[in-house]
Specification:
heterodimer, A: 4-stranded antiparallel β-sheet
Chain lengths: ~110, ~110
Amino acid sequence: DAGVIQSPRHEVTEMGQEVTLRCKPISGHDYLFWYRQTMMRGLELLIYFNNNVPIDDSGMPEDRFSAKMPNASFSTLKIQPSEPRDSAVYFCASRKSGGTGELFFGEGSRLTVL
Amino acid sequence: AQKVTQAQTEISVVEKEDVTLDCVYETRDTTYYLFWYKQPPSGELVFLIRRNSFDEQNEISGRYSWNFQKSTSSFNFTITASQVVDSAVYFCALSEARGNKLVFGAGTILRVKS
């Protein structure tokens, strides 16, 4: 089975531009998570969905960040407008209810905002 | 609030040495989960283990073993006979009962030299 698929793997953009990160969770997984990893703050949970519904977005840094999950196989994380401090690796992860509770992570999207 | 502390920022060992990575956690919950993840140089996060708060049995998987002690709020990870391929950043994480909001420690960089 394919793992969690994220795109793009690398994105370099200029301050003020809109950035959209994409994620395809593992088929059959009903939870989807967006994490951000930086040197200063480590791994932080931004938002998570259950059955396509946002459950907790308390980790979203500010209104410039938004996330959607229009269907069970696709989610986006959008930053508009982007700022240099948004530079980080953004991970998407998914899991299935019950089971081992293992979170399956994608390979991450490395964002650089100049 | 939940917190995970990995006091060892970086550890260097020579191949075949045993190494223990420390993890201390804080939570007010009586039911919680503890995790270890590995992040190799390629960047993805790989699940290693999940332990629930009611199961204090030590776990062994090949060269890996985990020691969970509620009395000291610790969940330490030992690699026996380390190998160069074990070089990675290792994260300890804690979640609430439903296992969704993972709080990660800062990570320990393990360097295994040949």
